[in-house]
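Researcher: Here's a chain I'd like modeled. Treat it as a single chain, no partners, no ligands.
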Amino acid sequence: MKKFNLGRKHTIFNHFISEIRDVSIQKDSMRFRRNIERIGEVFAYEISKEMVYEDKDIITPLGISKQTLINEKPVLATILRAGLPLHQGFLNYFDDSDSAFISAYRKHKKSGKFEIKIEYMSSPNLNNKTVILCDPMIASGASMVMAMEAILSKGKPKHIHIVGVIASSEGIQYLKENSPVKNWTLWIGAEDSEMTSQSYIVPGLGDAGDLAFGKKE
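Model: Modeled as a single isolated chain. Structure tokens:
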């Protein structure tokens, strides 16, 4: 497993991360969604560097331009509902890609604990495909592992890029120990060391789904 933390570089990317964390800016849900989308665009650009390319001749009005272009079409997968703005950022760049959607939620118990449930998945065949699986928050890591298992039910990808805007150190370790696939790469925007007993990342940013789309009952 390779791991890339884009937040360690001094770029405009960190400005987007700071705004989605800022409690005063979070009140603007449209800006929150747009910042998540822009973060997805940056991830898409960086992940494109890891893909396979081939030389092609492009005919212009005045001649031929030799270009080196991606020769594969990744499948863009996301976990509903919080992952939708991040998915849109990827789709803005990989605009001819197919998409996969996974519905995962926390089923809370009276004890205060919860379990992750996968309720629904829509996906093309994933055999020998490059898959980009994104979710804004990687907290415990359990939902991401279950999402990877769901992906395997649709075929055997040649590589999976796991993307989280903010991840906990515990969640990253859980992924390393429990990933059901060998060929995968982890991309994150920030790593936070703490997590609450309810599996919320600290300092994190709160509930990404609620901030993007409103509170749920």
